[in-house]
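Dear colleague,

Following up on yesterday's call, I've attached the two folding results inline so they're easy to grep. Please treat them as preliminary; we haven't cross-checked anything against experimental data yet. The first protein's sequence and structure tokens come first.
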Amino acid sequence: MPKLPSWLANTMEKVISNKIYQVEVVETKMLSRNLKCVTFKGDFFDAKFIPGNEVLLRVNANEYRHYTLSGFDEAHETCEVIFYLNRQGPGHHLAVNIQKGDRLKLIVDRAKVKYNEASNQHFFFGDETSLGLYESLGKKVMEEDVEYFGVLELQEENLNSVEHLKLLIDTVPSDVNAPAKNAITWMDNMHPLCWEMWQNATFYLTGRAKSVQQFKRYLKQRGVGFRQIITMPYWEIGKVGGG
């Protein structure tokens, strides 16, 4: 989201006041040295969260950042966000300093990546910035009693982070100079029957833009249809992203 003059940001918040919730941080948990799960509590009785829902947090006087909810509990009026502490970007200072008891404003946005209700199989590809989305979609898949699997390219220090989540997918080391290369190698090593069984799946590709591009090209070469692929690049080296 582009920078806004502080007066315009303040005005915008008044205009969309029905989407703004006062929340309190009730729990923080480190999934790895730079992945932080934060639970917020607020009066969410009318929020109508769905899997993939995004929220905005004001990270300074002039900027907001989008984050995908990793979970929500309507009964207890809580929601969760997994922050990637990438040590760069306007959101890092806010995320690294959030602690239990903090109070802040949370703006409810739409879901840019939506769960395909018509699909019986769901495949997830991404990186650290994708964890919240896939944690949310994975819970939906389990509720629907359908199938999912996938692969995330993660930094070495984050490879075990999925063990802290209810997310049953594989991980491979990321390579900054070869986006999606290790994930594609992982795909090539799958048994041919897997491709036959998953040829009609929905493929969700998010995270680094070049990785999404390379993985999408690979899927199309393997015969996956254009309509089966959902993409949402979150960041790229040299560009200001969601962090």
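Below is the second protein, in the same order (sequence, then structure):
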Amino acid sequence: MDLNAFWGLVESSAAGASGQDDRLERLTVALAALPAGEVVEFAVRLDEVRRRVDTWAHWHAADLICGGLCSDDGFFYFQAWLVGQGRAVFEAVASSPDALADLPHVRLLASRGGVHAWADEDWPDWEGLDYVAAEAFDGDLEAVLASRGLELLVSPDPGGESWDFASPVEISARIPRLGALFGKVA
């Protein structure tokens, strides 16, 4: 499965879906209808794509959006949510985490006055995306991946430079539009 097919599956799961659970169901059904090798390739492509946004810069942006409540699990699920936004959004944010300030959902979250005012379904996470390939695969997906010498990420392993996420100076320098949106710039 190439990246175009991967993104096609992810994006088509959103058409007419009533929420993330519905999208997961649609994606799982679509994957289960494919040959086993394609399901394995979907898992590999998801891992490859996710690694592109597994950086300290992206974690900083996610932490800012989530009001400082972005644990390693939270960031891992944020990465999956970002994939769920589709290829165009993903590519923009992969290039610049500050592009998150352009997303209508992020702008909505900023307008709500803090994470304590968010409903559970408002959180920018999509944990279930991590399990669709294993659920659609008829067999032990991890064993097949291991036999190919592949080990998928199961938690963040960010690259790049780390810094103080709470520093208004760092926010202003690194993610200024997002910082302004959430009132965190110097």
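For the second protein, one point worth flagging: The first helix runs from residue 3 to 12.

Best wishes,
A.L.
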